[in-house]
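Hi R.,

Here's the chain you asked about this morning:
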Amino acid sequence: MATNPLRHLESLSLWLLVLATVSGVYVFFAYPLSPWEAYRAVAAWAGVNGFLRSVHRYSSDWLMVTVVLHGLQMALEGKFRRWVEWVSGLLLLGALWVVGVTGLMLVWDEQAQLLGLLSVRLLVGSGLFEPGIARIFFATHPEALGGVFRILLFVHIFLTLLLLGGIWLHTVRLARPRLVPPRALLLWSTTLVAAMALLFPVESGQQLSAHILPVEALLDPWYGVGFLLLRILSPTMVCVVLGVVGGGLLLLPFLERRRWRQYPQIDRERCDACQQCVLDCPYGALQMREWEGKVVAELSPARCVECGICVASCPERGIVSAGVPDLPAVRPGSVLLLLCSGMPLPGELRRDPFVVVSVPCVGSVHADGVQEWLRHGWVAVVHCQRCVYRFGADWLRLRYSGRRRPRLRPGQIRRLFIAAFSPSVWGELQRWVQSARKETVHGEALPLSRE
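And the predicted structure, written out as tokens:
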């Protein structure tokens, strides 16, 4: 479904960041740049000011949710192999968390004080600061209080600008990055944030006090959850755990590189510089380079995720990959079933008349091999609802419908079944096979193989 947010987490996160930034700019101009006025002014906001404050808060909360889900999705799909995108994404996630925490502190209520004290405990536990810095959140002296206020405001704004710039680094190596969600999802997400802002306006807690420890203040469920570890571990142990987990995640793409990689191999003699592989690669891993007086395609291993889409993009069959198996010999009357790897398949579809081939992405299967199978049997393709490699299913449909090179030759499309994976797809496939058995070729029935 086009409106499924799990299929558009990248662009949805960017849109939520836009909402948070635009509403934040308005809030900034309405915000008094003084710690003595901040709490009273923010707590009294109503009308447009109160609405946009709530929009800023809820869009920021949902932004953290979508970014975390996006990171988990990339990890499960093996996208951490692209170290620039993975490392920059983790750093952006950390920056987003700090932006959220400092933004909550600028409200200058009891939650802000509690977040400040918990942050100090972590900083002291890391060994980078002395315990005495905790006094700044109980300060009453104008210079001390104003200094903390200015630091928080600077960090909040500076890291927000850093986030906006870091997104360029995070997406610059993607081919055709999807920066805007589908219109329906854009309207749906904006309406949700606006409705929450109207129905559940954000309110300030009790004012920060220099004499009372806010032990019962409620923490924000998205940005304050990281401090819950302090309930079961010492600050030093929390820093150790965060350091080990964070360091392990940052090193993941480099540790994974030690295994044998199945990069595509380009036959430069066959390359005719058509650039179709360059156009089709979802990650910009192919460029044209001069070689022995001619221009040929060249692979950048640092950008390659081994999807194999380039294998199917070359009209001259000049790209091969050990990760993309050759299609088996044609068995007249059989059904070649092409699946993305890891897709669950019922046992009855693993027997004749089906010949099952699992590939990293169905977009890696060359049209020429499928064409040969269509002459003597049928071909069924089941691809992911959300293509793990971004454009694999799109390119496959365009190639097989004759709208993108290399194309299937017309005349046998009726022998081709293409569908996205769903709970009902296997039943649809079996019904299609049953109807296919009634097809005739040159007036004679072409039965399915039943060895």
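The first strand starts at residue 265 and ends at 266.

Let me know if you need anything else.
M.
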